[in-house]
Amino acid sequence: MRKYRFLETYTLLTYLSELFPLVAALFFLKKIKSDIEVSLASTINLPLELNSVLCNYYRDRNDSMGYHADNEKELGVNPIIVSVNFGESRRFLLKHRSDKNLKSEILLSHGSVLIMAGEMQHHWLHAIPKSTQILKPRINLTFRNIKN
Length: 148
Description:
9 strands; Jelly Rolls; four-stranded antiparallel beta sheet; 22% helix; 2 helices; 148 residues
């Protein structure tokens, strides 16, 4: 799997041939970011300014992400993570940190949005497992707020 991180501030590229795809990608990412912020503020009364996006590219069934929590210090105490999915559907697994019998599974399909908030990162781990089925590529954009 390949990971790319785009931040609100970025450096202009030297070659124009590289600049145009970057500008198009940044416009696309800013539009999605803005739509998420407006939606969160209006539907669930959750005002939020997202300033970072991590792009995960899953090439096929062999690309995966092991169990983890998004609990990095720079995300704050109870981070809000917004995951937007494009392409092939993939399984999203959840398991409780202390009660190993508590598990859940969500199918993340094309266009789906998953929001993780509150104390979730304290109590739950999540993963995207490898698959036995033939899968087409998938892109996952994970928006978050990085604290200074």
